[in-house]
Amino acid sequence: MLSYLFTWLYSYLVTWLLGYLVALLLGCLDSWLLGYLVAWLFVCLFTWLLRYLVAWLLGCLVTWLLGYLVA
């Protein structure tokens, strides 16, 4: 629950910052919306990859612990 909340807050913050930076670089409303959309898509992909990596690491750890306890 806490990790999900942290991931959501981090995603929102990064999305907002990336959108703002792209808007500053391009300098108009349309580019701000485009930058926000691109940043949102990037963060969604990154969040998915991060969750997959954490799940994989936890699975490896649990498998190793079970193997160690059984052996």
Describe the structure.
- Keywords: Membrane, Transmembrane, Transmembrane helix.
- The protein has 71 residues and is an all-alpha fold.
- It has one domain.
- Helices cover 94% and strands 0% of the residues.
- It is built from two helices and no strands.
- The radius of gyration is 18 Å and the shape is rod-shaped.
- The model has no long low-confidence stretch (mean pLDDT 73).
Average pLDDT score: 73
Total strand segments = 0
- Assign the structural class, choosing from mainly alpha, mainly beta, alpha/beta, alpha+beta, or little secondary structure: mainly alpha
In whole angstroms, the N-to-C terminal distance is 33 Å
Total individual domains: 1
Largest sheet: none
Envelope shape:
rod-shaped
Poorly predicted residue ranges? none
What portion of the residues fall into strands of 2 or more residues? under 5%
Compute the CA-based radius of gyration.
Answer: 18 Å
Helicity level = over 70%
Number of helices: 2
The helix/strand series, from N terminus to C terminus, equals HH
What are the main properties of this structure?
71 residues; single chain; mainly alpha; rod-shaped
What secondary-structure arrangement, pairings included, does this model have?
Layout: H1 2-26, H2 29-70
Helix pairs in contact: 1-2
Transmembrane segments: 6-26, 33-66
Keywords: Membrane, Transmembrane, Transmembrane helix
Outline:
The protein has 71 residues and is mainly α. Helices cover 94% and strands 0% of the residues.
